[in-house]
Amino acid sequence: MARVLHNLFMFTMTLILRIRVLGYWSLIYGYCALCTAVALLKLWWNIILRPSTTFHWGIRETPPACLNDTSLGTHCYVRIKESGLRFHYVAAGERGKPLMLFLHGFPEFWFSWRHQLREFKSEFRVVAVDMRGYGESDMPSSTESYRFDYLVTDIKDIVEYLGYNRCYLVGHDWGGTIAWLFAIHYPEMVNKLIVLNCPHPSVFTDYALRHPSQLLKSSYFFFFQLPRFPEVMLSINDFKALKGLFTSRSTGIGRKGRWLTAEDMEAYLYAFSQPGALTGALNYYRNVFSSLPLSQNDVKSPVLLLWGERDAFLEQEMAEACRVYIRNHFRLNIISGASHWLQQDQPDIVNTLIWTFLKEGEGRKTYRN
């Protein structure tokens, strides 16, 4: 009798698990279909209003001068032997000083850290990477190439290639996700972790599933699962949607923030108008649902989480919830009036808060290599 009950229990649990998995993927594909319908309506409306310009966009052939500004650092390349991929990065500061490694988000590239490269090069070897699929780094065409484990291994390989076994790791948005994961899997390689506007991945997963308002704000995750169509929607009207992410009232840099100059915007358009650039960036989203939930969650490094109060994509409640996974000192700073694009929106405040965090527990001149 006991064996029968045990088998019945196992069958029931297996059935429940399968129903949950089916419900999970049904939600994803159902929401994807809804987002597609909305995007198609927007496309048709654009065609009606601007029939001659809707499908007009051009590749920027020449980089703007700001991308070759020597005050930001030197452009370098590394080919990782294990993956065979070539990565581009910009580095400044003396070799041998402690490494501060910057990981950008979507839709950005190394240039989003320009204010921090100038600020921290006095005390650190600062390196801002074009992550896999972005900028001048290689862009694997396969969605499978953007699995979390590959993205995390990229960072490990880059740190070791640069001649270091530890770093001060700074990440924003998608770069923040990879920074969290790197700190989880390689705690011995992270002196301190600094994350901007990106919750711990498990916090995001749990919160989004329980809060429809966050699921709605994350609707682009589902839309980006489609092949090719998101690239078209981001490109039409000469990348109007891409520009709007940084400049619109709803998602862009705030009124009191440091707005992108015309040249700054051209830098972004130069990077993302190149063949395959949008696909590489979007492939991060196209692999995300198969990478969650995480099997490991604890972060053992000291953590600074900076959060723009006006983030249009992520609800602020997730910031405090990250505390549960951190097994070390945790500092959270909410920056009033700041947008999702925090390090560009409020660079002076961000830099000051980072300096304060770096000094905690150690003198300014005694950073660890």
UniProtKB/TrEMBL annotation:
Listed transmembrane segments: 21-45
Superkingdom in the source lineage: Eukaryota
Family matches, as Pfam families: Abhydrolase_1 (PF00561)
Membrane recorded as keyword: yes
Molecular function GO terms recorded: epoxide hydrolase activity
Keyword tRNA processing carried by entry: no
AB hydrolase-1 domain residues: 98-344
Keywords: Hydrolase, Membrane, Transmembrane, Transmembrane helix
Gene3D superfamilies the record matches: alpha/beta hydrolase (3.40.50.1820)
Family statement: Belongs to the AB hydrolase superfamily. Epoxide hydrolase family.
Identification of the protein by name: AB hydrolase-1 domain-containing protein
Species assigned in the record: Esox lucius (Northern pike)
